[in-house]
């Protein structure tokens, strides 16, 4: 079974909590896993990561219990092939707009005849050729998470979620808020939360896991109450900067000032 899917199934009433890895640092990624996060998104879309960097982060996270999810920068078969060969077991696809794009994402993760993933025997994913079953099992063990991040995508969410091979849907609040005309604020706009809640309900009706990201513990709890089954808490950089600013303000006897929040790979500063 796919490790991320196993995590979702084994969590029971305790929602699995994740975070975004934006630092591109293996050491910080490993520390996030040691801190106790259940899953973490190794982000290629909004961080300076190449495939070699992804490999190093996967190796680092492999020393912890944190389940890695690799977000590719684009829904493109060559990019997907390379991160899978590097050892990614679950891939997140940004900005999926319709069922056809979701189907293309799934196809990029599957070997023929089910998809278009290129075949190689000597890779980290096959333990460098020593795992005799790796190629035969790959189509059943790779996970796919698709992101819906616009109002148009939300309108098509049933069709997207129903595509065979889509294991979970992830609603991106930052891009959705911008698309709805409510960008630029760290707090969830009520209209955006309303749209996200409806999306979570529609995915639940299909039996499809749905996740998102929140800035603070309070916001994560709010999103959980809205029906989201797995939620990320900010990012490694956001948590560091917010914590550092709070401690510095306390030592200087000053208000904490601006709060730094992370919304799905983008950092927003609010007064």
Mean pLDDT: 92
Strand order of the largest sheet: 1-2-3-4-5-6-7-8
Q: Identify the CATH architecture.
A: Alpha-Beta Barrel
> Pairing-aware structural class of the strands and helices?
alpha/beta
Poorly predicted sequence stretches spanning 5 or more consecutive residues: 262-271
Alpha-carbon Rg, integer: 18 Å
Please name the CATH topology. Answer: TIM Barrel
CATH class value: Alpha Beta
The count of domains is 1
Shape: globular
**Distance between the first and last residues' Cα:** 45 Å
Beta-strand proportion: 15-25%
- Helical residue percent? 40-55%
Number of E-state strands: 10
Element order: H for helix, E for strand: HEHEHEHEHHEHHEHHEHEHEE
Secondary-structure topology with pairs:
Blueprint: H1 3-10, E1 17-21, H2 26-35, E2 39-43, H3 51-61, E3 67-71, H4 77-85, E4 90-93, H5 99-108, H6 134-141, E5 143-148, H7 151-155, H8 157-161, E6 168-171, H9 173-179, H10 190-206, E7 210-214, H11 217-225, E8 230-235, H12 236-252, E9 259-263, E10 266-270
Helix pairs in contact: 2-3, 4-5
Care to describe what's here?
The strands form two sheets. Strands 1-2-3-4-5-6-7-8 form an eight-stranded parallel β-barrel, surrounded by eight helices. A two-stranded antiparallel sheet has the order 9-10. It has one domain: TIM Barrel (Alpha-Beta Barrel). The longest helix has 17 residues, at 190-206. The chain has helices at residues 3-10, 26-35, 51-61, 77-85, 99-108, 134-141, 151-155, 157-161, 173-179, 190-206, 217-225, 236-252, and strands at 17-21, 39-43, 67-71, 90-93, 143-148, 168-171, 210-214, 230-235, 259-263, 266-270. The model is unreliable at 262-271 (pLDDT under 50). It is an alpha/beta fold and 271 residues long. It is globular and about 60 Å long. Helix 2 packs parallel to helix 3 (51-61) and helix 4 (77-85) packs across helix 5. The chain has twelve helices and ten strands.
């Amino acid at each position: 079974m796919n490790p991320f899917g196993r995590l979702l199934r084994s969590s029971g009433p305790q929602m699995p909590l994740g975070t975004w890895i934006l630092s591109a640092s293996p050491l910080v990624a490993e520390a996030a896993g040691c801190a106790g996060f259940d899953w973490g998104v190794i982000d290629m879309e909004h961080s300076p990561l190449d495939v070699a960097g992804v490999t190093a982060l996967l190796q680092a996270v492999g020393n912890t219990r944190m389940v890695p999810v690799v977000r590719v920068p684009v829904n493109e078969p060559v990019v997907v092939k390379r991160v899978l060969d590097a050892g990614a077991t679950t891939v997140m696809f940004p900005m999926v707009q319709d069922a056809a794009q979701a189907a293309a994402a799934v196809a990029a993760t599957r070997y023929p005849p089910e998809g278009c993933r290129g075949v190689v025997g000597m890779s980290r994913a096959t333990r460098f050729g020593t795992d005799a079953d790796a190629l035969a099992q790959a189509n059943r063990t790779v996970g796919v998470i698709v992101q819906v991040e616009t109002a148009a995508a939300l309108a098509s969410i049933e069709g997207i979620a129903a595509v065979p091979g889509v294991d979970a849907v992830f609603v991106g609040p930052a891009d959705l808020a911008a698309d709805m005309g409510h960008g630029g604020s760290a707090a969830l706009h009520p209209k955006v939360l309303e749209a996200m809640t409806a999306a979570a309900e529609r995915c639940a009706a299909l039996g499809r896991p749905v996740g998102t990201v929140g800035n603070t513990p309070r916001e994560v709890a709010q999103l959980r109450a809205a029906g989201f089954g797995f939620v990320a808490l900010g990012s490694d950089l956001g948590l560091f900067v917010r914590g550092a600013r709070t401690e510095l303000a306390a030592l200087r006897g000053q208000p904490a000032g601006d709060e730094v929040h992370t919304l799905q790979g983008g950092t927003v500063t609010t007064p």
